[in-house]
Amino acid sequence: MNVSAVNSLAIQTSQGQTGDAVNILVQKKAMEIQAQSASQLIASLPPVASNPPHLGQNIDMMV
Predict the structure, then answer these.
(1) What is the DSSP code (8-state) at residue 55?
(2) What is the model's pTM?
(3) What's the per-residue H, E or C state across the chain?
(4) Which one of 6, 15, 28, 53 has the fewest CB atoms closer than 10 angstroms to its CB?
């Protein structure tokens, strides 16, 4: 093997690993932003009105 070919292969491998690391960091940041957006959407929901206490206590069954 030629020395310059080995050097070129090492550079390509290094660049590939750097590119992979950058892609992973970008993906993590995108997931963090999505999580923050989801949290804000959930927080912006109006509170759920509760039912009066007499509802949901009995079940009518027909036999």
Answers:
(1) T
(2) 0.52
(3) CCHHHHHHHHHHHHHHHHHHHHHHHHHHHHHHHHHHHHHHHHHHCCCCCCCCCCCCCCCCCCC
(4) 53
Q: What 3-state DSSP class applies to 22?
A: helix
pLDDT higher for 20 or 24?
24
Give residue for tokens 């039912």: 51
Token pair belonging to 62? 């027909």
For 51, how many CA atoms within 13 A lie in the half-sphere containing its CB?
5
pLDDT digits (tens, 9 = 90+) for 39-57: 999 999 998 878 788 887 7
CA distance 60 to 63: 10
